[in-house]
Amino acid sequence: MISVFLLQWQRLRRAPILVLSFLGLTILFVSVLAGFGGPNSQFTIYTYGDPTLEEENRDKWLDRLNEEGNLTFHWVEESEAVEAVTSRSAGMALKLMNDDYQILIAVQDPSSVMIENYVYQVFSEELRLQEVASHVNADEFYSNLDKVMSDPTMKVTTESLSGEESSYAFDERLHFLFGMTLFFSIYTMMYSLMNVAEEKRVGTWDRLIVSPLYKWQVYTGHLLYSFLIGMIQIVVAFLFFQVVFGFDLGERYGTLLLVIGCFAFAIVSLGMLVMGLVKRSQQMQAVIPILATAMAMLGGAYWPIEVVSNEIMLALSKGMPIYYGLDALKGAAIYNMGMPELLQPISIMLLFGVVCMGIGINLMERRA
Amino acid sequence: MLETEELKKVFKGKPAVDGVNLYMDEGESVGLLGPNGAGKSTTISMISSLIKPTSGDVKLKGQSVLKDPGIIRNVLGVVPQEIALYEELTAYENLKFFGRIYGLKGKELDLKIQEVLEIVGLRDRQKDIVKTYSGGMQRRINMAAAMLHEPELLIMDEPTVGIDPQSRTHILDTVRHLNQEKGLTVLYTSHYMEEVERLCDRVYIMDHGQVIASGTKDELKSILSGEETILIDLDRPYPALVTDLQSHEGIRQALETTKGLKLIVPKGSKLLGSIFQIAERHQAQILNVNVQVPTLEDVFLHLTGRKLRD
Ligand SMILES: Nc1ncnc2c1ncn2[C@@H]1O[C@H](COP(=O)(O)OP(=O)(O)O)[C@@H](O)[C@H]1O
Ligand SMILES: [Mg+2]
After folding, report:
1. A3 and chain B: CB distance < 8 Å anywhere?
2. Are strands B29-33 and B202-207 parallel, antiparallel or unpaired?
3. Has UniProt tagged this entry with the keyword Lyase (chain A) (predicted)?
4. Which end of chain B, N or C, is surrounded by fewer C-beta atoms within 10 Å?
5. Per-residue pLDDT averaged across A166-183, rounded?
6. Which chain B residues are closer than 8 Å to A212 by Cβ?
7. 0.90 cut: is pTM over it?
């Protein structure tokens, strides 16, 4: 088993292009989709006012909205904002009122969903605070609040508060990172697993079978390799964006690793199932891109599943391991969830893997 | 050492191997001769426990291989019909891997690798990537990979198909050397009768999944003891002449060859006169006539009315 496992690495060393290119594509796509600038990546939102808006309120809202570093709410004349949105040079514009807002939108895309959420949160929070303030002395309340916010002993609260706010802006970049990384890792794992089909075609498989090795050892060697190379690709991509672009993956590294492992297991098993179903390795070659793309699309790797409203699509997404992978990764990285909270997506991925593996090996052995 | 009992394999209702009985004694060199599709490879796959027979059994030293495939795996070396190597790796890396799966390691494995490379004559090219080898050299490595674990029984499935004469001679010499000097038991499969005739003590002739004749080379040829072979060279092909000769009652088999004709006739039948007459009728120009002792090829021709290779 170890020999078979090590052999795959030796073969990879001689022909690393495929795997490296999938890692390269991951980095390319995430960079483009999540915006090049890394932490400086900016969304500028044209902001204008209702005629009734008071100057004091205008400044207050702009200050509050601009607290999130990655979003710039830029004050313009109404005509300019409307012009920008209708000509589609801006995706959206925000209209401020004294204690309400309206959003002018050209195209509904993932980033507009995030921004809408963010604006909604700022307003509802501020209005809630105002509500409380109206029952007490307003000046005193706000100065107390400021003190609380800047008080070092209350640092934890402050951090968690700002962490929650920034999650909206970071959410999108992490979404692309998670989505694209898992998507391209499907290719790597399945193509690596094709070594099995390839060995059967060339005849080296027969050599292994007539040797004293047990068949399960041969399979395990291959599966372990595909699994590990998938995990490594995902981890390298995550580390790259964390170190180079400063993506915030939270602190639950163990949980992240566990989720990645479960996802890789599910995909490798799915690969076995596919191999059991197709007859030749060329067919497998054709099936992999279709399968990977379909799963990524339906499972929400391209756009967040939150923007999908079609019932059928939503139902289908629940059948995709990538959906649970994304769900669990976001849970761990953004919402700081641990094992107990993520038990559901994790166990679904594991179950998926066990079922596919069982059927796949059975089909393959029946044909032999 | 090894025997098969009524070995049978059916693929989708069609029998590929149909009740084959063969045996091999220790140190013997046995040939399995037959045209493409005769069922040779399928027989070998069943012997090496790669595929399960539809019925019948394989016995190694009296024990059923079907019941316990493990018993044959360390004893057996199989050289597959196709080149089953990792072509992006070097010959050395390939051999290292195939040695490891037989439990060899370290110095012992290294020594063994150098030894088999020496045998197949490719020591100086061992660090080269297999893909860059000629077909003949790949076949030699293909063979080396089956000998690392010092098998008692080496089964070779058409190891000389499609290679240069030099590599072919090398492989044949190697097999003979292993069999005669080292006492290795060899089962050699081929559709080239010259190879089998040169290498093997005993021969099984297969056709359509069945053994149609078996015995030592002399025993097989004695099937034709009452017959002789006449080779006639002609200036060009005459298909109609062949048909005419075939229907001549004294002639057992008539066949076109590259140079002219091959006839199998009863010994001492004094047919040459009428053969010349028939040739005259077709205005065929006879360049040469040769009366020969039969070969294994002729045995196959006699038994089936066909050539081994078409
Ligand atoms: N896996 C298989 N499935 C179906 N038919 C097969 C299979 N393997 C071999 N055959 C058929 O069995 C017959 C014998 O094949 P084979 O043993 O390869 O012959 P040989 O090695 O003598 O050329 C052929 O007719 C071939 O088409
Ligand atoms: Mg064959």
Report:
1. yes
2. parallel
3. no
4. C
5. 74
6. 70, 73-74, 101-103
7. no
Percent of chain A with pLDDT over 70: 86
Quote the pLDDT of residue B310: 56
More confident residue, A237 or A335: A237
Q: How far apart are CA B17 and CA B125, in angstroms?
A: 39
- Predicted confidence (pLDDT) at residue A155 exceeds the cutoff of 80: no
Q: Which two tokens stand for residue B203?
A: 């021969």
Return the pLDDT at A147: 63
pLDDT of residue A314: 84
Whether A152 shows a pLDDT value over 50: the answer reads no
Nearest CA in chain A to B151: A211
Domains and CATH numbers, chain A: 2-36+171-367 (no CATH), 40-148 (3.40.190)
Q: What ipTM was assigned to the predicted interfaces of this complex?
A: 0.81
Flag residues of chain B having pLDDT under 50: none
Read off the pLDDT band of A354 (50, 70, 90).
very high
- The predicted-structure confidence for A65-89, as pLDDT tens digits, reads as follows 887 767 788 888 888 888 888 887 7
Residue nearest to atom 5 of ligand 1 (CA): B11
Tell me which residue has its CA closest to atom 24 in ligand 1. Answer: B37
Map out the domains of chain B as residue ranges: 2-221, 226-293
Q: Check CB contact under 8 Å for B80 and A208.
A: no
B8 bridge partner residues: B18, B55
Atom of ligand 1 nearest to the CA of B45: 17
The answer to whether the Cβ–Cβ distance between B102 and A211 falls below 8 Å is yes
Q: How high is the pLDDT of residue A130? A: 78
| Residue A305 per-residue DSSP state | G
The CATH number of B226-293 is which of 3.40.50.2000, 1.10.10.10, 3.40.50.1100, 3.30.70.920?
3.30.70.920
> What are the residues of chain B with a beta carbon less than 8 Å away from any beta carbon of chain A?
45, 48-51, 70, 73-74, 76, 78, 80-89, 93, 97-98, 100-103, 129, 145
Is pLDDT of A38 > 50? Answer: no
Please state the rounded mean pLDDT for residues A288-298. Answer: 92
Residues from chain A contacting residue B89 (CB–CB below 8 Å): 10-11, 14
Per-residue H/E/C for chain B: CEEEEEEEEEECCEEEEEEEEEEECCCCEEEEECCCCCCHHHHHHHHCCCCCCCEEEEEECCEECCCCCHHHHCCEEEECCCCCCCCCCEHHHHHHHHHHCCCCCHHHHHHHHHHHHHHHCCHHHCCCEHHHCCHHHHHHHHHHCCCCCCCCEEEEECCCCCCCHHHHHHHHHHHHHHHHHHCCEEEEEECCHHHHHHHCCEEEEEECCEEEEEEEHHHHHHCCCCEEEEEEEECCCCHHHHHHHHCCCCCCEEEECCCEEEEEEECCCCCHHHHHHHHHHCCCCEEEEEEECCCHHHHHHHHHCCCCCC
For B2-221, the fitting CATH number among 3.40.50.1000, 3.90.226.10, 3.30.70.1150, 3.40.50.300 is: 3.40.50.300
Whole-number percent of chain A with pLDDT over 90? 39
